[in-house]
Amino acid sequence: PVSLFLKTTYAGGPGKYGLVLASMTGQQKMTRMTTINGLSKITEIGSTAFILDAQNNTIAVDPNPYDVAIFPANTPSMPNGLKAGDLVVTNFGANQTGTTLVRFPGEKGPGHLFNTMTNGTKGPADEAFNTLTGTDWVANMGANNIEVFTSNGRLQQTITNSMFKQPWGMTFNHGLHNAKDGAVGAFFTSNAATATIDRIEILPGAGGTRFQVTQIGQLTQMGKQTFIAMKWVPSLQLQGKKFSDVLVALDPAKNRIAAYPNSSTSTMNKTSAGMTVFQGKSLKTPGGLAINPINVDLLVVNGGDNNLVEINPSQGKIVGTRTLDNAP
After folding, report:
1. pLDDT digits (tens, 9 = 90+) for 115-128
2. What is the pTM for the complete model shown?
3. Rounded to an integer, what distance in angstroms lies between the CA atom of residue 271 and that of residue 262?
């Protein structure tokens, strides 16, 4: 398993390109669930190996999805665009050869072609929705840029910057403003080639929108490529204290989770490794990250042992572990 968002994850293994959904039984629903310990069933809900094109013809695309994003409720959408609960999956591909974004209406298959990365570039990685506009921001590792798609799949804009070095992670701060420079929101991306973290501020102006990129973090390099997954939360309890505007990032080389409070406004040291939320042997090359919407626990997918691990950040301890796939 390499990625998950809320309840959905990718199950890896030879020939397995399916998206899976963990669910609970009717009896379990009668008692309020809080952690992953009560999830009893994993069901395949779709595949990115064969999908439908715009004419509903079946086409074969390079599988191996990385990111799974759910289109949020109460988010603007265009005609024939995404609806709340639809999935968009980045088809990273084997050896970074994927080019497609795949839409699963209503969180289930068959998959539909959402769009293809421009100019034949390969390796779409993480993605995040702008909840104010409905656009999908995709970290395009193969082209060192960020591609922004409208909710109906049209390429709207390509963002480039010299700081982008194989962009991988992507998350949005839900439109939190920065009064210091007039930013109306910010995305964050991580760079696989340098293990750095960048903040991309959205700055509207009379001449059009511009983007200000600032490096706010430096994690541990892990070989030639370090895959840093990230999520942003408005607040988080850490070490008995409440912090606001927190960017949470995986530090796979150290089996660690880092946190950057005040991430949207702070002029942090660009080499900061952040606060340590958790570090230990239960994390084995962590590659996917999500937030439990019930209790704000951190949900981490280990690339090293296929486990889904739930961590209470306030207590700094593991509260649940589930194996997602028995394949090596």
Report:
1. 988 877 788 999 99
2. 0.90
3. 16
